Amino acid sequence: METTKPWVKPALEFGPLIVFFAVFMLYRDDTVVMWGRDYGGFILATLAFIPALFLATAVQWRLTGKLSPMQVATLVLVTVFGGLSIWLNDPRFFKLKPTIIYVLFAAILGASLALRRNWLGAVLGEALPMDAHGWRKLTARMAVFFLVLALANEVIWRTMSDSTWVWFKTFGLPVLLFAFLLGNARLYRDHALPEAAAKDDDAPL
C-alpha cells in the first residue's frame, strides 16, 4: 500500500460498510421483489455488501500481495452468514455475524496468551514496535475489548430496531475501535522500541 494514495486504504476498509449503509437507508421502508420473493432493505443491503467486500478485498490483495488472517476470516463469515440471511430472507444471521467474529478474535488472542505467542505482534508489529510485555498487555486488553463488542452487538440486535443496529454497525463499531486504540496510547509509548530493535513478531512472549 506504500505506493498508493493515502485515501485508498480507508476507502477499501470502509467502502463496503458505506455501501451497506447507503442501500439500507435507501430501501429500509420498501420491499423489492426478486426471484419471486419479497426482500426488505436489510436483505438488499446485505446483498450489496457481500460483493462490495469481495471487491475491496481483491483490490487490497492486488495492491499489497497479502491478506491478514482477520481479513480472510471476516470475508468467509460475511459470505456464510450474509448468504444465509439472503437465502432464508432472515436478517438475524447477518446480525449474528459480528458476534461470532469478535468471539473468534477474542479466542485467538486468548490462545496466544495461553501459548505465550505474539500473534498480535505478527499483524501489527511493523507499524507498532513494542517490547514483549507491552504486546502481552495489549493482547489481553484487546481480547476483553472484543468480548465487550460481541456482547454489545448481541444486546443491540436482539433488543433494538434494524436501523439502530445498522447505525451501530456502520459507525458505532469503528468509533469504539478508534477510541480503544487511542485509549492505549500510553501503553504504546511506555513499551515502544526502536524499529531496528523490535523482536521477531512470532517470538515467545
Automatic annotation (TrEMBL):
Main location class: membrane
Transmembrane segments: 7-27, 39-59, 71-88, 100-119, 140-160, 166-183
Keyword Transmembrane: yes
Keywords: Cell inner membrane, Cell membrane, Membrane, Transmembrane, Transmembrane helix
Membrane topology per record: Multi-pass membrane protein
Subcellular location: Cell inner membrane
Top-rank taxon: Bacteria
A single cellular component GO annotation: plasma membrane
Entry's family note: Belongs to the YciB family.
Free-text function comment from the UniProt entry: Plays a role in cell envelope biogenesis, maintenance of cell envelope integrity and membrane homeostasis.
Protein name listed in UniProt: Inner membrane-spanning protein YciB
Protein's organism: Paracoccus liaowanqingii
Encoding gene per record: yciB
